[in-house]
Design brief:
The structure is a homotrimer. By secondary structure, chain A is α+β, with helices and mostly antiparallel strands. Chain A has a single domain, classed as Alpha-Beta Plaits. Chain A is 27% helix and 41% strand. Chain A has a four-stranded antiparallel β-sheet with strand order 2-3-1-6. In chain A, strands 4-5 form a two-stranded antiparallel ribbon. In chain A, helix 1 packs across helix 2. At the A-B interface, helix 1, strand 2 and strand 7 of A face strand 1, strand 2, helix 2 and strand 6 of B. Strand 2 of chain A pairs antiparallel with strand 2 of chain C, so a sheet runs across the interface. Bound molecules: nickel (II) ion (NI) (3 copies). One nickel (II) ion binds next to loops of chain B. Chains A, B, C: It comes from Paludifilum halophilum. Chains A, B, C: It holds the Pfam family CdAMP_rec. Chains A, B, C: This is Transcriptional regulator.
Chain lengths: 109, 109, 109
């Protein structure tokens, strides 16, 4: 048994939740914010048998992988005219940071 | 030293908190939501000496054990006339999912 | 690789966040409340290489160490005249509870 602790961007959180439910993987979500990331993120904790760790990591990779995305000019900046960029820019979105922890004992009541 | 991570239904969360305080067990509560459970839940993290793990697990079992409960007809469904059940039904409430993690080192500042 | 789980008072949370960013340490913050502490607290989870554990613990100690602080009479009590204390009192503030957990595997997507 392992405890997977996965920090994912809010943007990908719902999609990952749905994928986990579809695959019958029980997850608990904790509201979290990052030190670096401006955007909010969600921390998933998932208790899982050893042999299902890799399939769950694949699910997380597929649904949360860091990727480039075009962002429309209007939404790219905070409204300051000086920092306005009049053309679409490519930004990095998504990404997941995942820790796999050993579990010494597991109980369900 | 172990770190107990316990996911319990909000319904049982206050009762467990009070029981832990009574027994002088320090716990931190994280707001959480479940992947499966519709109801909100709370994640307790409890750092505890090895010899107190079993007593704390007993506290969690006593206060959060999954059990059947009669639910009045009016509150059983979402208001859809088709799904209205005109008699009390027994539903499962409570339950706790508990992971016991090894702690390599513990510091208090 | 280790996972540092640090519970700190909200009072010190921003200062610790800034210190971690300055030192290029990635942290995730979880909103949390304590069983004992009346004040809110924040739980930091920090994944870190083994050799950086001690520097990070030093940062936490420097920014969150438990300490005495004088509290003005007006703010010391809840507004009840009976419990009003007409002189400054020294109260204990801050403090951090820190668990260092072994990490079996770490992935970034
Ligand atoms: Ni195992
Ligand atoms: Ni121990
Ligand atoms: Ni290591």
């Amino acid at each position: 048994m392992k405890l997977i602790v996965a920090v994912v961007q809010d943007k990908d959180s719902n999609r990952l939740s749905q994928a986990l439910v579809r695959e019958n993987v029980r997850a608990t979500k904790l509201a979290s914010t990052g030190g670096f990331l401006k955007a909010g993120n969600t921390t998933f904790i998932i208790g899982i048998e050893d042999e299902r760790v890799d399939p769950v990591l694949n699910l997380i990779r597929e649904n949360c992988k860091s990727r480039q995305q075009m962002m429309a000019p209007m939404s790219s900046m905070g409204g300051n005219a000086d920092s306005y960029i009049p053309y679409p820019v490519e930004v990095q979105v998504g990404g997941a940071t995942v820790f796999i922890l050993p579990v010494e004992r597991f109980e369900q009541f």
